[in-house]
Design brief:
By secondary structure, this protein is of the alpha/beta class. The chain has 16 helices and 13 strands.
């Protein structure tokens, strides 16, 4: 077993007498992580199994009856439901049981989509639940082969909590840009990774979305999915996607929302508190994992695919890493900024009242010119003190008294 950064926090919170909701995309390791924390004698419902899902949907009362059959336990009997969004009525049943006796059961509900819950107006147990999320591997969990430099300062430090840990296998930059950070992909044999990622794109994206959303024009949606993946990392352009896919702009917007609801899409809003008049207000959209992004775009996940156009892929990797850290840390937001004349700051971290602009550059030899937009942002914002250019330089470099060029493995 490898360790996850969020494991200590989750283990600690599971001891608290609330309902626990753990969300995240398929294959991020939710069930595996919980498997090491929930007692073997826990009552388990796997709604990813079609037979069990059909049985619970046909007879929702069976869940309540099974829970009530458990013997009383002062510490609380664990009840684990995987893919709980498949049967939204379970949330009402959990509330009824929890309200009747807050100490008899310890409910843990796991899900890979919030769409059915949102559309159905499902009861997410306000005041009774703690919400958790799990994402693909961060650099803390899945380190770089290159050694870290002790004196380097990250724009968003993300150290391990607690004592010793067992990290996932170390990768170089091109491998992580090619195959992403899903635990099962990182631990798979190299030759199996492209096929596994393509299968995920077909089974877990296309088929799961077909079941979850009941998309009417499936061919148009598949075209949209491929275009959305290909455009990942860019500022959203609904008109272009609409024209290319042959579907209306409102439908395009709803499809993007669907990707977010299934935790495979990340929306990075535009930073709006700028004195500039020509700043765009349109968000960026990222796929949650680069390996899945390549496969969904119809590309073969490989080092060769990355080398064909590495800059945009590297920028997406930086954005995904920063976004995941902010989600785990539980504070701060990630933005971007672009003007109509093309001036752009790739990412802006807002945390603790401080703004930190970050530029991603696929270069081993950064120059002050690579930091010009970061410097302009620093000069116009009093709450921005220092900026970074994340790149492939072998060691940190001072490009300006307020800007550091940072090796990617020091991020």
């Amino acid at each position: 077993m490898y360790d996850r950064w969020y494991a200590d926090e989750l283990r600690s919170r599971l001891n608290r007498p609330y309902v626990h909701l753990l969300f995240g995309a398929r294959q991020t390791g939710k069930s595996t992580l919980l498997g090491g924390m929930i007692p073997d004698d826990a009552l388990r419902f796997n709604l990813a199994d079609p037979q069990e899902r059909s049985r619970i949907l046909a007879n929702p009362g069976e869940f309540t009856q099974a829970c009530r059959s458990l013997p009383a336990n002062k510490k609380g009997q664990f009840v684990f439901v995987d893919e709980a969004q498949s049967a939204p009525a379970i949330f009402d049943a959990v509330q009824s049981l929890y309200d009747a006796d807050k100490s008899r059961w310890r409910f843990v509900l796991c899900g890979s989509s919030a769409r059915k819950l949102r559309v159905a107006g499902a009861n997410l147990l306000p005041g009774r639940s703690l919400l958790h999320h799990l994402y693909p591997l961060t650099m803390a969990e899945h380190p770089a082969k290159e050694g870290r430099i002790a004196h380097a300062t990250s724009p968003l430090p993300f150290p391990w909590r607690g004592g010793k840990h067992k990290a996932f296998p170390a990768w170089d930059l091109t491998d992580r840009l090619a195959y992403g950070g899903l635990p099962g992909i990182v631990t798979a044999e190299p030759g199996d990774r492209p096929g596994l990622l393509k299968a995920y794109a077909v089974v877990h994206l296309e088929e799961e979305i077909r079941r979850e959303a009941m998309v009417k024009d499936w061919g148009a949606f598949v075209r949209f999915l491929q275009l959305a993946a290909a455009e990942s990392g860019q500022v959203l352009n609904y008109a272009n996607i609409s024209q290319e896919s042959g579907i209306s702009q409102p439908t395009v917007k709803s499809h993007y929302q669907l990707l977010e609801d299934m935790f495979v899409g990340i929306r990075v809003p535009a930073y709006s508190k700028s004195p500039r008049k020509n700043v765009l207000s349109t968000p960026k959209f990222l796929f949650f994992d680069l390996g899945i992004r390549h496969a969904a775009a119809g590309l073969t996940p490989s080092v060769e695919t990355v080398k064909a156009n590495p800059g945009p892929v590297f920028e997406q990797w930086v954005g995904i890493e920063l976004w995941q850290r902010l989600q785990y840390l539980g504070e701060g937001k990630l933005y971007h900024q672009r003007t109509r004349d093309g001036a752009e700051v790739d990412f802006i971290i807002e945390r603790g009242g401080t703004l930190t602009p970050v530029e991603a550059k696929w270069t081993e030899h950064p120059t002050p010119g690579d930091a010009r937009h970061v410097l302009a942002f620093l000069r116009e914002k009093k709450s921005a003190h220092h900026g970074y250019v994340v790149c492939r330089c072998p060691r940190p470099l001072q490009l300006h008294d307020r800007i550091t060029a940072l090796p990617w493995f020091c991020l």
